[in-house]
Design brief:
2 copies of one chain form a homodimer.
Chain A: H1 10-23, H2 36-43, H3 47-59, E1 63-66, E2 70-73, H4 78-85, E3 88-90, E4 99-109, H5 112-118, E5 125-135, E6 138-148, H6 157-162, H7 167-175, E7 181-190, H8 193-199, E8 206-216, E9 220-229, E10 234-240
Antiparallel strand pairs in A: 1-2, 3-10, 4-5, 5-6, 6-9, 7-8, 8-9
Helix pairs in contact in A: 1-3, 2-3
The structure holds a DNA duplex.
Chain lengths: 244, 244
DNA sequence: AAGTGGTCTAGACCACCAT
DNA sequence: TGGTGGTCTAGACCACTTA
């Protein structure tokens, strides 16, 4: 009997099954998965094969292993934010946790270009949230977040403002939406009046613009974010070739 | 007998030994390494352990495996350039190979800030090379490359201009210098007169500035490159969370 | 057909954590 | 002490390339 033409290796099937369970919320954020021995039994594979599947999810930072304790769904704490989702650092290279201040929280409709990137229909309801991020007390980044209301049904300004965790942490713990990846597109722009005022720069000053699409399992988009960064004293740090 | 406090796993030692051999040029660019069975024998480890070491080097794109053929030192061809070291894409997302045009080739001395990043002494001899990169026939990027002369002893304008491969390919094949990683720092700047002319934009137009340090084995810096990008029709694409 | 990397398994032992 | 992940090994078999 000929082999399947596009037969995926067993460990990929196991990985896909794990991702399906994760996407279904079988193991909530921070929860321990069953032990590797039990998972291997459940999928009827050897422990080596199971480990290879988990290895890949650990490399993608979806899962976290802790020797002696178990394997966990990675949580969105300050460390993960700083190391993997916030690349603006001081010009001297020092990393610093941004301090967000809510500027506006509105409801609206998705523009066509937003709808395309969010995989929703133009005109669908969205939240528009605006934040100023301070670094060392100085406003450096102006963020505009666009969220499909369908994914965050009961979100309110109060909930957003009173969260005691990171923004992606809120998505994860309250809405079961786990951001696992993001794609960023960077361009240079000139500051308009509103932005100049918010960031304390001159109109026409050069700004770094970051257009981010945040994705959950299966590369489903869940958030759009535009960041305007004053790079007078900060820069965007990218590391190529480590596995990116 | 107590275990070593900071004992590295065997496969890490094997990996370090492989990197040492690579850095020493034991297997030149594009050459096949000995088979996994032979390498396992050489390091006196099981094939599984040897494979784990090679796995990591493959993930870092230092080595390339080809089933049925062997394991090779990764070469710097157009594909590797496009996928891992050149992140400027058209605004519609299409990737395109840049076409470089040499603008200037000079010898000079390292400025203090350059010396720091290149791990050489201020005043050491360097090459300064300026390129304009065209995309779809239009000038989009102005590159300034700084190279320590000590690492590229016989480099001349003619050699640089007449190469029939990528720039990193030239470093690799002619000088045995294999760029395996790069760190990029991005900021927004306004175009000065010279840059505006080279890129065909107005003085004061916003440009994306990329400061890259290219590294070889053991994170030794080998090249500094400053790119000024006209992001009117292009953008810098970064993928977070895939392993970056 | 011979040689290479790719997958899968089974089991032993170690290091770490909770109790 | 028992359970967890981490390492290392040995071997079988498969898929692919080259000649």
């Amino acid at each position: 009997m000929p082999a399947d033409l596009a037969a995926a290796p067993l460990y990929r099937e196991v990985k896909a099954a794990l991702v399906a369970s994760l996407a279904a919320g079988e193991w909530p954020a921070g929860e321990a998965l069953p032990s590797e021995a039990k998972l291997a039994e459940r999928f009827r594979v050897s422990i080596g094969t199971l480990r290879k599947a988990v290895d890949e999810l650990v490399a993608e930072r979806v899962l976290v292993r802790q020797q002696g304790r178990g394997t966990f769904v990675a949580t969105h704490g300050p460390k993960r934010l700083l190391f993997h989702f916030f690349h603006v650092v001081r010009a001297d290279g020092e990393k610093e946790l941004p301090e967000p201040a809510l500027v506006a929280f509105d409801r609206g409709r998705a523009e066509p270009h937003e709808a395309g990137r969010l995989a929703i229909a133009p005109g669908d309801r969205v939240f528009r949230i605006r934040n100023v991020l301070k670094l060392a007390g100085e406003p450096v980044v102006l963020d505009t977040i666009v969220l499909p209301q369908a994914l965050f049904p009961d979100l309110t300004e109060k909930i957003f403002r009173d969260r005691d965790e990171t923004i992606y942490g809120l998505y994860q713990t309250r809405y079961g939406i786990n951001v696992v990846r993001a794609v960023e597109r960077l361009t240079a722009r000139l500051a308009d009046r509103g932005t100049a005022k918010a960031l304390g720069v001159a109109v026409g000053a050069p700004l770094l613009r970051i257009d981010r699409t945040a994705l959950t399992y299966h590369d489903r988009p869940v958030e759009l974010r535009t960041s305007l960064v004053n790079t007078a004293g900060h820069e965007y740090l990218a590391d190529l070739g480590k596995g990116a």
